[in-house]
Design goal:
alpha/beta, Dehydroquinate synthase-like, alpha domain, 2 domains, six-stranded parallel beta sheet, 52% helix, binds fe (ii) ion
Length: 382
């Protein structure tokens, strides 16, 4: 049997309504909470007030920062870090999607170890104890509440950079499906697409293990069944997707992601395409390009998630799912200029960590062929 290591120290509390436990939970980790949220969302629907109440019930004090930006930048996390240090808080509560949780990871690191966030980019690996984070995801896709990664945008170049290390993992994650009630269809679609990428990429990654496979298969099984229902507003299905997202995060936490993620980053940084959509635009084409080498894995995955499609038909089934949640079929439909083809490839090549995880060694000509296919679009369903 394959050897493996699996490490997941995050306490996961999964229960509709468990946001009520935030005060009790925070009191285990500190006395002064730094609550991070994004824009109006948390305030408009009463979540901020509710969390503040629950924290003060436990006689903890709190500092609220409610301006976390989408796709956190170096400048953004530096600013939040200054406020965190001045506030003398000792625990961070991140209420939001992947951007908020990633920004929280960067702040917990900077506040404890000092310096600039750029000092810690991969290939550096963070291993020192940091400020504790309680993550409360309000989307169902990134799985960031159970991953050791934070993606930060470099100010000078606009490129996505990765900070990683086991100590970035949140100490606890509160998964409360009530927080998903107001999600828009487009957020459900893009975050659900991210889950699919996490499952398939981790299942085919060179760093996969029997343990990560188990999370990936279970997550994908749920996603194929419940993502379209969640997209159509079914609250129970959204709860299932919250679970699937967490499982997908657990899978990539050790197995990592591969070529589709590498290619997707340019679309997010240059065109501000949501991460899940940017990534899934390449996923079927990566699978088709590599199918001769990964046929067995794809078939195992397909039967494992009870899709029952032979490897050759797998991307067609995947396309059916993506069509049901309105994922654009081609890069052109997404508004990407053909002139940017080479930039997408070059940026993809710079994500060496993802390409090293990829089951097939992909070079410039291979990525170019995949990107060209993504411009042509997903094959029509027969
Ligand atoms: Fe992702």
């Amino acid at each position: 049997m394959d050897k493996f290591q699996f490490y997941l120290p995050t306490r996961i509390i999964f229960e509709r309504g468990c946001l009520s436990k935030i005060g009790e939970l925070a009191s285990k980790y500190g006395k002064k909470c730094f609550l991070m949220t994004m824009g109006e969302f948390a305030t408009k629907y009463g979540f901020t007030e509710y969390i503040l109440d629950k924290i003060s019930e436990r006689e903890l004090s709190v500092y609220l920062y409610d301006e976390v930006e989408m796709n956190p930048t170096e400048r953004g996390v530096n600013k939040i870090n200054e406020l965190f240090v001045d506030s003398r808080c000792d625990v961070i509560i991140a209420f939001g999607g992947g951007s908020v949780i990633d920004a929280a990871k960067a702040v917990s690191l900077l506040a404890k170890l000092g310096g600039k966030i750029g000092d810690y980019y991969f290939p550096n690996v963070v291993d020192k104890e940091l400020y504790p984070i309680i993550a409360i995801p309000t989307t169902c896709g990134t799985g960031s509440e159970v991953t050791k990664y934070a993606i930060i945008t470099e100010d000078e170049t606009g490129k996505k950079k990765t900070v990683l290390g086991d100590t970035l993992l949140p100490k606890a994650a509160l998964l409360d499906a009530n927080t998903l009630k107001y999600l828009t269809k487009s957020i459900i679609s893009s975050t659900g697409a991210d889950v699919i990428c996490h499952c398939i990429e981790s299942f085919t990654s060179n760093k996969r293990s029997p343990f990560s496979d188990m999370f990936a298969v279970e997550s994908a099984k749920i996603t194929f069944e419940y993502l379209p229902k969640a997209f159509n507003g079914d609250e129970e299905a959204k709860e299932r997707m919250l679970y699937a997202s967490c499982l997908g995060g657990a899978a990539i936490n050790t197995a990592g992601t591969t070529a589709a993620h590498a290619l997707g980053y340019y679309l997010s940084s240059k065109y501000h395409i949501p991460h899940g959509i940017a990534t899934v635009m390449f996923l079927p084409h990566v699978i088709d390009y590599e199918i001769e080498s990964i046929k067995g894995r794809i078939e195992e995955f397909s039967y494992g998630i009870k899709l029952g499609a032979p490897a050759e038909q797998f991307t067609e089934k995947l396309g059916e799912l993506l069509n049901q949640v309105d994922v654009p079929k081609s890069l052109g439909e997404l508004g990407i200029k053909v002139d940017d083809k080479n930039k997408i490839v070059q940026e993809g090549l710079s994500f060496r960590r993802n390409l090293e995880n990829n089951p097939v060694k992909l070079e410039e000509k291979d990525l170019t062929a995949i990107v060209e296919k993504a411009f042509k679009g997903r094959p029509a369903i027969k």
